[in-house]
Amino acid sequence: MKTLLVCEYREGKLLDSSYELVAFAERLGAEKALVIIGSEPEAPKVNGKVYVAAAATYGEYNPDLHKKLVLEAVQRENPDYIVFLHSSYGWDLAPRVAAALKAGQVSEVVGIVDGKLEVGFCNAKLRRIVSAKSARTVVTIQAGAFSFTGEATGTPQIEKLDTTAASSVEFIGYEPAEAKDVDLTRAEVIVSAGRGIGKKDNVPVIAALAKALGGELGASRPVVDSGWVEHSHQVGTTGQSVSPKLYVACGISGAIQHLAGMKKSDFVVAINKDKDAPIGEIADVLVVADVMQFVPAMTAKLMK
Amino acid sequence: MLVVACIKQVPDTTQVQIDPVTNTLVREGIPFIVNPYDTHALEESLRLKDKFGFRVVAMSMGPPNAEATLRKAMAAGVDEAILLSDRVFGGADTLATSNVLSAAITRLNKTEPVGIVFCGKQTIDGDTAQVGPGIATRLGFTQLTLVDRIINLDLSRKVIRVRRKLEGRHEIVEAPLPVMITVVRELNRPRYPKVPMRLESANSEVKVWNNEVLKLDVNKIGLKGSPTWVSRIFSPEREKGEIIGDGINDPVGTAHLLVDKLRSKDLLAL
Questions:
Q1: Which end of chain A has a smaller Cβ tally under 10 Å, C or N?
Q2: Does A304 touch chain B (CB under 8 A)?
Q3: Could you tell me which of A52, A21, A59 has the C-alpha nearest to residue A36?
Q4: Domain range spanning residue B244?
Q5: Residues A298, A206: Cα–Cα separation, whole Å
Q6: CB neighbour list of residue A242: distance below 8 Å, 6 or more residues apart
Q7: pLDDT (tens digit, 9 = 90+) per residue, B135-157?
Q8: Number of domains, chain B
Q9: How far, in Å, CA of A134 to CA of A136, rounded?
Q10: Is B25 close to A126, i.e. CB distance below 8 A?
Q11: What is the C-alpha separation between B226 and B83, in angstroms, rounded?
Q12: Are B119 and B240 in a shared domain?
């Protein structure tokens, strides 16, 4: 069995998550060859064959060109699995490759069970085992699901890839992610402050974590009533009912009115010094800590 | 020019429960909803209709009861709703599904050219994120995924400029029509149908196209046309209420554990 691993490269650097592809191949017990496409890409430090497509025009994502390069490597390697990260890059490119190869695609794989692919289902509440009967299978793997524990010290055997293809899409430019309006109902991440943060001066510490997670600041009613945070941020029966993918409750004990407004969140993290606080009953993960010690440490880790 | 919004009826996954004894999915009584991402695809189609006067067709493949989903689209203001329903379409994976949708769009294209096909970026019940791209490839439409803003539609040059949501930044690209666009939630806020339209939609016709209409090779649709299959569904180990690390004595180490945990759940960089 053989895998072709499509590494990822952004702003001049190989993404560390590319090594997760190697971990996937190892878990599957499969041979591997790698592909990397970009302007002067740095090859991953692994033993084995690495196809490098290095040219200025490959730097920005040109889907037609990237597809053709991956297909070229597929032709040379004849892999059973073509594996991408489940990122915006893999999201866009994997189905193009699958369609070109008439291959089945299994997306966002989280594990391997008896040599078969395990994926989340129904908002990750369930899992399912998916198999493919096509000659090749295109796979995307969930970020962080396969951790690479070895050291990246191998010596790649580099082979050059080169092709040309007309692009259907014209690249205009990049824009940085901007600050969003406060509309908690549509936020995918919310970090909320409760009375446990102690005082109004500590609100920016919670807001900084929200920003580091790419989310919005929320608040419990007592915090809003005290005038620490504006009402538009309030979560609960007298504020907004929210259903983000990630809800982080900082110093919120979990009054029933608050829980009613956020219990539809997919994943709840509670940070509280009381392990028996009601929020712990609906939290997926509980951190028992002093909020004002823990939150800055978490923000610092995320910003690194 | 015709705009097509592909929508799917899905179980409301926030209400999906597991039978604690048999460890299987409890199917009874779970309400069906329009896949949330598809409501944004539908809304954007309607905005283009409001602005340019395009005709909008909502399309769904599913069992006969998926008609309810298309009625909601009619109440929201689409001009035509088509349900692709036939026993032979059943059991389809994303590849087989995109074969059926593409055939139906090709059929529409014969009477009026289709300029834009909108799909949600993924569905909440399957999460394969492959149907839209599959349609694009089969129809030869330009594929634009993860779109969070339509910047400009230039009908004289027949090009569309959009913004795509990537990790920590956006990419702006321009592509010639026709295009297939998959949308993210930030694109718009779906409208609520007005009451008179809801009443009207209760009586309006949802067209049903079966395989006698589409005449697809049965080896390319349904279970037979699906290269992937699901051999088992199960409930993951319950991790609720897990206490991580020792936040009192080691806040920094615990912060690292939590960040790793969130990364493993794909909850960073949302």
A1: C
A2: no
A3: A52
A4: 236-270
A5: 10
A6: A184, A185, A187, A190, A218, A235, A261, A262, A264, A265
A7: 999 999 999 999 999 999 999 99
A8: 2
A9: 5
A10: yes
A11: 20
A12: no
Question: CA–CA distance from A73 to each of A26, A105, A240, A245, B100 (Å)?
Answer: 20, 18, 51, 36, 30
Specify the number of domains making up chain A. Answer: 2
For the whole model, what pTM was predicted? 0.76
Range of the domain at A119: 2-160
What's the CATH code of the domain at B8? 3.40.50.620
DSSP β-ladder status, B2-6 and B114-120? parallel
Q: What CATH number is associated with residue A8?
A: 3.40.50.620
- Look at B144 and A169 and tell me if their CB atoms are within 8 Å: yes
**Tokens standing for residue B226:** 């699906």
Q: Kindly report the nearest CA distance between residue B207 and chain A, in angstroms.
A: 29
Statement: residue A5 has pLDDT above 60: yes
Share of chain A above pLDDT 90, in %: 51
Beta bridge partners of B193: none
B window 57-86, beta carbon within 8 A of A: none
How many helices, marked H, and strands, marked E, lie in chain A?
8, 17
Residue of B128, B161, B171 lying closest to A174 (CB–CB): B171
Minimum CA–CA partner of B151 in chain A: A172
In A282-300, which positions are buried (b, 16+ CB within 10 angstroms) versus exposed (e)?
bbbbbbbbbbbbbbbbbbe
A86-114, pLDDT tens digit by residue? 889 999 999 999 999 989 999 989 899 99
Per the CB < 8 Å rule, is B263 touching A144? yes
What is the rounded CA–CA span in Å between residue B158 and residue A118? Answer: 43
In 3D space, the residue among A241, A243, A250 whose CA is nearest the CA of residue A193 turns out to be: A250
**Residues A60 and A109 grouped into a single domain:** yes
State the Cα angle at A197 between A192 and A202, rounded to 5°: 95
- In Å, how far is A172's CA from the nearest CA of chain B? 5
Domain-embedded: residue B255: yes
Residues A86 and A199 in one domain: no
123-142 of A, contacting B, C-beta below 8 A = 123-134, 137, 142
